[in-house]
Batch of 2 targets.
Target 1
Amino acid sequence: MSPSSVSLSSLGLTARGGANPDIAGLAVDSRLVREGFLFAALPGSRVHGAEFIQYAVRMGAAAVLTDAEGAVIAADVMAEAGVAVIVTDAPREVLSRTAALWFGAQPATMVAVTGTNGKTSVSTFVRQIWIEMGLSAVNLGTTGVEGAWTAPLAHTTPEPITLHRALADAAANGITHGAMEASSHGLDQRRLDGVTLKAAGFTNFTQDHLDYHETFEAYFDAKAGLFARVLPEDGTAVVNIDDPKGVEMAAIARARGCAVITVGRDGGDLQLSGQRFDATGQDLRFSWCGKDYQKRLELIGGFQAENVLLACGLVIACGADAADVFDTLPHLTTVRGRMQLAATRDNGAAVFVDYAHTPDAIATALKAMRPHVMGRLVAIVGAGGDRDATKRPLMGAAAAEHADLVIVTDDNPRSEDPAVIRSAVLLGAPDATEVGDRAEAILRGVDAIGPGDALLVAGKGHETGQTVGDDVLPFDDVEQASVAVAALDGRLT
Ligand SMILES: CC(=O)N[C@H]1[C@@H](OP(=O)(O)OP(=O)(O)OC[C@H]2O[C@@H](n3ccc(=O)[nH]c3=O)[C@H](O)[C@@H]2O)O[C@H](CO)[C@@H](O)[C@@H]1O[C@H](C)C(=O)N[C@@H](C)C(=O)N[C@H](CCC(=O)O)C(=O)O
Ligand SMILES: Nc1ncnc2c1ncn2[C@@H]1O[C@H](COP(=O)(O)OP(=O)(O)OP(=O)(O)O)[C@@H](O)[C@H]1O
Ligand SMILES: N[C@H](CCC[C@H](N)C(=O)O)C(=O)O
Ligand SMILES: [Mg+2]
């Protein structure tokens, strides 16, 4: 739990001129500053936080943490107000470490997972394995804080004050184990640099978020920060080496003296050697330290086995006995909105909801369904507004290549014109049917599936809203799928 107030120096901060006021709280947004707070005035994409120092001072800020540019922008205001000023060329990193010290406790065993796809899945499986082993655990990320203790989160990797408040609350509630997602934005903005990790995981690297990072190199460098900087030298990197970028991540971690556990189909310390699929799941064969194992997984999709084995590697890296870890596999359950069976038609055709929102995830999800499906595969896809626009035609193309029938619809158009987004997706899927209204698209998709067929509703997964402009309209793919099935099978009263 955070203290009521501590001196600036006990938070490891040195102010210009040696001022050392008591600090009563931390804020990154001037509107949240209260009497005695430290205000972190960070450079932003739209504006420099230093523009709000005057406001923060009026709210009672006792200290300001900023960079050289911020110090220049607000020099007069700060001199006149007499606040303590800390200037650093790494204000985000310093804020993370300060937040860790301010909130104090975090679960003693923490792991973080990065990669384009699979972060939520792997961190959820890590948490499920720990709980199956009798430990008190949570996962933190896109789906909020879940597990032995729950709380909502607005971001996949929250900014450091929110993150460390959540970790301290978890620790205060007796949580000893935590698995978190490290998004590329979060890593780039040093949001998790104050978290003490035992292990870090890497899933895969494909296209996403180029609107923010601009180049693949910058996107890779952001993710590599988990292994090059955040993971301590006595920590363990657990990497998927089927992805060439995983081999690079392993080399980055090894060069710093970190231990490395490799996971893969083609080789690796933890190697997946066989998979047999059926209607409700799959049987896995794999090896660890020269010993073979065979386990049942009640999960749909070949890639989920990769996620599960990466999760096993992370739990083993934290000190668990491997055989105990593998014994939990038959008890793992679907991650919310990830290859989730949402409804089944009277004719046996199944509707799955999945969070695939990148070209690679759409291809992976559809390919993963094939071995479980005898008939045709129908896909419903759409792309988000105010997000990487270059991925749109590629998402359409991935659906067209791997499904037998494609319906293009809306997925959080946000501030953009939904018709423009759909036409970009349709460039990659010219034969697709365009149905803007997502509920109608789901109804049409459900109507199209006969015996042995399956429908994949991609893009929204666990989400419960459709963001149009600034409004979030209630919308849940799982619920809509059930409604559509009930309506078409005459089960609505
Ligand atoms: C693109 C991005 O990451 N933006 C982050 C960034 O905001 P920004 O650069 O746009 O900030 P700005 O509006 O220019 O303002 C600059 C500074 O002034 C401050 N300010 C602003 C207004 C005011 O009145 N007072 C004030 O103090 C702001 O708090 C900010 O620190 O710095 C802010 C403070 O640190 C973050 O909250 C904000 O995350 C926003 C909320 C966001 O939506 N981020 C998304 C894109 C994100 O991080 N997503 C990933 C997705 C992961 C995935 O899909 O894999 C995630 O981890 O969730
Ligand atoms: N190992 C994997 N390889 C390829 N695709 C995957 C893998 N795991 C999950 N996916 C696909 O990516 C989608 C998102 O999965 P998940 O939510 O676990 O990823 P994430 O990395 O947390 O995404 P986000 O960036 O939104 O936080 C899934 O619904 C599935 O379609
Ligand atoms: N965390 C991802 C989720 C995308 C999900 C999809 N439904 C969309 O809105 O694009 C993002 O914000 O880019
Ligand atoms: Mg996620």
Note: The chain is about 35% helix and 25% strand.
Target 2
Amino acid sequence: MQFKVFPDDTLLSSAVADAICGQLRQNPRSLLCLAAGHSSLGVFQELVRRYRQNEVDFSQAGFLAMDEWLGMNRSTPGSCSDFLIQNFLSQVNFPPERVRLIDGKASDLQAECKAVRCSIAEAGGLDFILLGMGMNGHLALNEPGVDFTLSVHLTQLDGTTKKVGQKYFDSAPELTGGLTIGFADIAAAKNILLVVNGERKSQILQKVMESPVTNLLPATGLKDLPNAALWCDRAAASLCPAG
Ligand SMILES: N[C@@H]1[C@@H](O)[C@H](O)[C@@H](COP(=O)(O)O)O[C@@H]1O
């Protein structure tokens, strides 16, 4: 895994946007999987700006959501799908038939997981995944203790995720579970980028950097992957020796 520190989130987000634009230049039909969360906000803003300036085009690309809270879908304010639509998808030009969000309200949740697995397989895998890291070291909703061999699955939530997840909502919902792509899907992606920004992530980033690979800190699973990179800003890296 490559590790790189940027002076601030603006430069970090711009470098991530460069990487995504480069991916689309190389393969305009790429399947992108970009995290719904505050880590991605600067990247979304930069990609929207570039789209408006005709510097990037998503008209042939595909988009796959990474995760969704149980009992929520695109109609739920604050859900992962809603976050993606509001902050990114509604402002750029993905073909609607190539946008696959996850329905956490589906009547058959296992069938929904299977359908998302099929979408990934039909596209020949994810071309580019942009991950954020949770305050407990989770990736997507692969929580501490996760089985690294799993593909798309239904999961229970760690206490930290239940608490921290409230930040996306005005309504203080009870967060009980989620549907998420699995570590196996992440590891099989052609390009894997984890962004970590802000001082509030400095302690968990230090823990991840100092720990060997363990499913108790899911982000450490990227360490063995040659096509993975962890890019962070200086605030997040402030407790890391290399920061
Ligand atoms: N479901 C999301 C993840 O996909 C996200 O990447 C991560 C970090 O969130 P944030 O970027 O808001 O810190 O945790 C959330 O729970």
Note: The longest helix spans residues 9-26.
